[in-house]
Amino acid sequence: MIHSRPKPSTFIALGLIVLVQIFGLVYILNHFATKRTFGLVIYLIATVILTLVIVLLLVKMMAAYKFITISKDSIITRLPLRGKTTTYSLAEVLVWEEETVITNKREFKQLTIVFEDKTSFTISNHEHLNYEEFTKHLSKKLPKKRVIAGKNPKT
Q: Where are the transmembrane segments (predicted)?
């Protein structure tokens, strides 16, 4: 069995960024309550921007918290925050695709698997563990269901 789960370093980095922004938001609100050296518009804009970025990062972290396991004949997806675990047989995979993008001299790969019930599952090499083993296993077990970028899947 190959288990793919989020890398702890991703959540640590995003968590630290969220903490810094929360401290910044508390600082801005404290500054407004005690000193008020800036105009009201500056405080409002800073508060709104910091709050939106904090919420967006928290949503990103919650969406990325998912696990997928592949064995000889099945794929198990787990979304702990939703309390949902689904088991699919390999025959229930409609298509799978691996996209590769090179940015800043680094290779970013993303794997998307679409199942018969029209749900999809996406993992990436920068955010998940065992990505390469996962793609090798899919290439070995389901080579005909792979979609090559730019080509239409056979229907």
A: 12-32, 38-59
